[in-house]
From TrEMBL:
Superkingdom field: Bacteria
Chain ranges passing through the membrane: 13-32, 72-90, 96-115, 171-198, 205-224, 308-327, 339-358
Annotated protein name in UniProt: DUF2079 domain-containing protein
Keywords: Membrane, Transmembrane, Transmembrane helix
Organism in which the protein naturally occurs: Candidatus Viridilinea mediisalina
Length: 550
């Protein structure tokens, strides 16, 4: 590690221009997912509700499948408390998305500084900053809702920059902030300590770093988590059983060995040309990265777009810088140009891999409207119905009341004590929806459920709500349904089915395969609203799958 150069290390227009472009892109893409109802209650919604709960005097409490639970009983994200003042000013999940994107973008500053200090080349520092900003798993982590791993990524880089400058007070601050993002950040922090002790020439600092990381990790995992767990907590909140949740079926790893290997190649591959020469810096991240690649948890967790790989990025950057420094030193006489070529090729590979595998504007598929990608409404696209949904929720759902909602609607209802989702993937209840109904006063269901799945995703729960005697349907618009507990009779919308004689209908107007459109009637209502009536006749046997007529 070398002393800093005398000139101001970040007074570089290209650095700030790259940060402006990439930071703006990541921020707008994150917000576009929210605007289009493509961010879910799981992750972003839960984190937002937990942070807002602090304003009500609760310790990061959100609604889990069985009821209220503190984030301090899960991943112990003390760092979330720093978002409370911002959420107090604007109680909206967009605050978290903006903050995460900007903080991640800021990680280019320490990456640039370290490279400039170690390589004494602005061109090299710019390439390193570009590699960081466009690294595939960095961008996918930022675009994957909101997580402590992603927040810790730039904080670790700031800590490494401070260590490189021997600014130990700053180093301690950044390490403390990184540890507060998630309990298992203690693993790579301990790895940093090991590096400083073994190869960094800072045995005392390295030893203290390892001691602090191990002590903190043990304290929060074995002390804080059980303290905030509740009686109904599942195995993911009870001590070592956390491990069984993610590795309970590890024997299945061999069945998916090839996919895991390919995902590992995406995670490590773009910088391997240089990073393998700085292999020592990869060691601090290997325990967590290996754990992710071997996990049998839901997701699948090992997918390269998982936010867990964010903690690897700082060490890939350090390994790349180390690799360039080694190449520059050893080839100084025989091939003085070699390091520049390899660094340029590495930057190009990062750009190309990101353009192919990350859902962002450099990817040609971003502009093609492919379902689930780019401008399609399952990814970043926003439809007129999204605007209708926003107005429906604002107008009909009262504030503060306990609700259960479709998973892509619940994120807009987080500023309250209780927000259940209709179908919870972690639920241990045999009938989740029926079990949690006594805890809520309102049900909000997206009957068309136009989010990445079949429209009958919540069909059984919708049928249950329609028959449940304590709830009445009080509002309906464009497939959005609101049920109220003990609703006044006059407020309940009538549910009727009228059978008509086919002999009274005209000849078929339109034949659509096994369905015939026999009649259409459109009546104007108040303002710009219309009521449409369609009469269909089944021509032949019923279809194998449910149909929806729009």
């Amino acid at each position: 590690m070398q002393p800093p150069p005398p000139h101001h290390s970040t007074r570089d227009l290209w650095l700030w221009l790259m940060m402006l472009v990439v930071g703006t892109m990541l921020t707008l893409l994150s917000l576009a997912r929210y605007w289009g109802y493509n961010t879910l209650m799981l992750d972003l919604g839960n984190m937002s509700q937990a942070i807002l709960s602090v304003l009500r005097g609760e310790p990061l409490v959100f609604t889990y499948y069985h009821g209220p639970l503190s984030r301090l009983a899960l991943h112990v994200e003390f760092f979330y408390f720093l978002f409370v003042p911002l959420m107090a000013l604007w109680p909206n999940p967009q605050v978290l998305l903006i903050g995460q994107a900007l903080l991640a973008t800021a990680g280019a500053i320490p990456a640039y500084r370290i490279a400039l200090r170690q390589l004494d080349s602005r061109m090299a520092a710019r390439c390193i900053a570009l590699i960081y900003l466009l690294y595939p798993v960095m961008q996918t982590a930022v675009l994957f809702d909101f997580h402590g791993d992603t927040l810790a990524m730039p904080l670790l880089l700031f800590a490494l920059d401070a260590a490189d400058r021997k600014a130990w007070r700053s180093y301690a601050l950044w390490i403390g902030l990184a540890l507060s993002c998630k309990f298992y950040v203690a693993v790579p922090v301990a790895g940093i300590g090991a590096y400083l002790w073994l190869w960094g020439g800072q045995r005392r600092v390295g030893a203290w770093t390892m001691v602090v990381a191990v002590a903190y990790g043990a304290f929060v995992f074995l002390g804080v988590r059980p303290l905030f767990a509740v009686a109904s907590s599942t195995t993911t909140q009870t001590g070592m059983d956390y491990i069984s949740f993610y590795y309970g079926e590890i024997f299945l790893v061999t069945e998916s060995f090839i996919p895991r290997l390919l995902h590992a190649l995406v995670v490590f591959g773009p910088t391997l040309l240089l990073a393998w020469r700085g292999w020592r810096w990869l060691l601090p991240a290997m325990p967590l990265t290996s754990a992710v690649l071997l996990s049998s948890g839901p997701g699948p967790v090992y997918h390269y777009a998982s936010h867990h790989y964010a903690l690897l990025v700082p060490f890939l950057i350090m390994a790349t810088i180390d690799g360039v420094a080694w190449l520059r030193k050893t080839k100084e006489v025989s091939q003085p140009w070699r390091w520049k070529v390899d660094l340029g090729v590495t930057a190009l590979v990062v750009v190309l891999v990101g353009a192919l595998l990350v859902d962002q504007p450099l990817n040609p598929r971003f502009w093609q409207g492919i379902p689930g990608q780019g401008l399609h409404h399952w990814s970043y696209g926003v439809t007129p119905r999204d605007g209708v949904t926003t107005r429906f929720l604002e107008h009909y759902v009262p504030p503060d009341v306990p609700v259960v909602a479709s998973v892509n609607l619940a994120t807009r209802l987080i500023n309250r004590d209780t927000v259940h989702i209709v179908i919870h993937p972690d639920s241990k209840y045999e009938d989740h929806f029926a079990t949690i109904l006594p805890q809520v006063d309102y049900i909000v269901i997206n009957a068309l459920f136009d989010w990445r799945t079949v429209v009958n995703y919540e069909q059984a729960e919708l049928a249950y709500a329609l028959k449940y005697p304590e709830f009445g349907l009080v509002a309906a618009r464009d497939g959005l349904l609101l049920f109220e507990r003990d609703a006044p009779t006059e407020a309940v919308l009538p549910q009727t089915v009228t059978l008509v004689s086919m002999s009274d209908l005209p000849d078929p107007e339109l034949a659509l395969g096994p369905a015939l459109l026999r009649g259409v009637e459109v009546l104007p209502l108040e303002g710009r609203r219309f009521q449409a009536r369609f009469v269909w006749q089944l021509n032949g046997p019923p279809p194998e799958h449910d149909w929806v007529a729009i």
